[in-house]
Amino acid sequence: MKTKNIMIVGVGGQGTLLASKLLGKILIAKGYDVKVSEVHGMSQRGGSVVTYVRYGDKVYSPIIDKGEADIILSFEMLEAARWVEYLAPGGRIITNTRQTNPMPVITGAAVYPENLEGKIKDLGITADCFDALELANEAGSSKAVNLVLLGKLSNYFDFSEEDWMTAIEQSVPPKFLEINKKAFELGKNI
């Protein structure tokens, strides 16, 4: 199998690293060679966080170059726009539409760009854009955005529901398990 590339992008504290670890677990369980590389950036201050997940028969490097990502899973619209040049031709973006203001916007040094969803789609990119925070809140926790987005991502894999639930159970603390399972289901069915 040709190596597939998924970028998970967001802002520090949104759960991007848990999402990448959960995705890596299910891919390994399905027998793929998997490489995960985390680029934290200024994650502790709400800065950009990027994780590369590469899988296939044999993966030699954990890094995804520009134009190679089959899917960009984005926790925030501005992050989707920031990393769009990494998307491969025919690739897909799955993104949360909820805005998280970066520090320059918070301090008034910059303005959050308008109509990012439209600008991304104007590039001819296939994009699944929805308010993942609303669904996470419906599941019971604003911190479950990562599982909502993984639920949507799961539609592009040929893995069973049981496979995903096993990976969730192995990755999420028991006291948050039901909320995260519900968030996953809401994202899957959006």
Describe the structure.
This protein is an alpha/beta fold and 190 residues long. The chain has a single domain (4-188), classed as Pyruvate-ferredoxin Oxidoreductase, domain 3. It contains 8 helices and 6 strands; from the N terminus they run E-H-E-E-E-H-E-H-H-E-H-H-H-H. The protein has helices at residues 16-29, 77-82, 103-106, 116-122, 132-139, 145-154, 161-171, 177-188; strands at residues 4-11, 33-39, 48-56, 69-74, 87-96, 126-130. Strand 2 (33-39) and strand 3 form a beta hairpin. It is globular, with a radius of gyration of 16 Å. The model has no long low-confidence stretch (mean pLDDT 93).
**Which CATH architecture is right?**
3-Layer(aba) Sandwich
Q: Cα distance, first to last residue?
A: 29 Å
Mean pLDDT: 93
Number of strands: 6
Helix content: 25-40%
| Coarse shape | globular
Number of domains: 1
Task: Give the percentage of residues in beta strands.
Answer: 15-25%
CATH topology, which one?
Pyruvate-ferredoxin Oxidoreductase, domain 3
Structural class: alpha/beta
Oligomer category: single chain
N-to-C SSE series? EHEEEHEHHEHHHH
Rounded to an integer, what's the Rg over CA atoms?
16 Å
